[in-house]
TrEMBL record:
<protein>
    <submittedName>
        <fullName>HdeD family acid-resistance protein</fullName>
    </submittedName>
</protein>
<feature type="transmembrane region" description="Helical">
    <location>
        <begin position="12"/>
        <end position="32"/>
    </location>
</feature>
<keyword id="KW-0472">Membrane</keyword>
<feature type="transmembrane region" description="Helical">
    <location>
        <begin position="72"/>
        <end position="91"/>
    </location>
</feature>
<keyword id="KW-1133">Transmembrane helix</keyword>
<dbReference type="Pfam" id="PF03729">
    <property type="entry name" value="DUF308"/>
</dbReference>
<dbReference type="InterPro" id="IPR005325">
    <property type="entry name" value="DUF308_memb"/>
</dbReference>
<feature type="transmembrane region" description="Helical">
    <location>
        <begin position="153"/>
        <end position="173"/>
    </location>
</feature>
<feature type="transmembrane region" description="Helical">
    <location>
        <begin position="38"/>
        <end position="60"/>
    </location>
</feature>
<keyword id="KW-0812">Transmembrane</keyword>
<dbReference type="InterPro" id="IPR052712">
    <property type="entry name" value="Acid_resist_chaperone_HdeD"/>
</dbReference>
<feature type="transmembrane region" description="Helical">
    <location>
        <begin position="126"/>
        <end position="147"/>
    </location>
</feature>
<feature type="transmembrane region" description="Helical">
    <location>
        <begin position="97"/>
        <end position="119"/>
    </location>
</feature>
Length: 187
């Protein structure tokens, strides 16, 4: 049974790592509300780049899991995150509206992909609804930022922080559940 549990451990650890990153991102924004746009761009770029890499690790870990081949949606979401992170890091001087739109489109795309993944995962995971909630929160944030970019980056930072923290908590919850399940398989 250990051969089945090992890939699940990788998935659980990757999910927890993604959750910790999301919470850290949210806390940084809440602790430093006077943060400048360029710092937000760099922090956002680092966060989504790391999240994308963690997602790819998660995807490769799932390839060896007992459920078989992982969803391509996770890989697509991870590539979108890496592309958004690289764009933010290599183009740090754009205006607040451009930054808002970059983050808005990223949040919308990631949210849609998470919603799709959640519905696909409901056959396999009892906790599929946690991904659905996180995805819907990101869709709502993305739509808000895309439809109201003139409100400025500082106006949505608190919302972004709260959504990131909630999504992080959900990722950690999922990861710990997966690790507990893998531990039972090892026993």
């Amino acid at each position: 049974m250990a051969t089945i549990a090992e890939p699940m451990k990788t998935v659980g650890i990757a999910s927890i790592f993604r959750g910790v990153l999301a919470i850290a991102f949210g806390v940084v924004i809440l602790v430093w509300p006077q943060i400048t746009v360029s710092i937000v761009v760099v922090v956002f770029g680092i966060f989504v780049l790391a999240d994308g890499v963690a997602g790819i690790v998660h995807w490769f870990g799932r390839r060896k899991s007992p459920e078989g081949r992982p969803s391509g949606w996770l890989l697509v979401a991870s590539v979108v995150s890496i592309a958004a992170g690289l764009a933010a890091l290599f183009w740090p001087g754009p205006t607040a509206i451009v930054v808002t739109l970059i983050i808005g489109w990223w949040a919308l795309l990631i949210g849609i992909l998470q919603v799709v993944w959640a519905f696909m995962a409901r056959k396999y995971f009892a906790l599929w609804w946690t991904g659905l909630i996180a995805g819907l929160l990101f869709v709502a944030l993305g739509l808000l930022l895309i439809l109201q970019p003139a409100t400025g980056i500082m106006g949505f930072l608190i919302v972004l922080a709260i959504i990131s923290i909630i999504a992080g908590i959900l990722h950690i919850y999922d990861g710990t559940r997966i690790l507990r399940f893998a531990k039972r398989l090892d026993a």
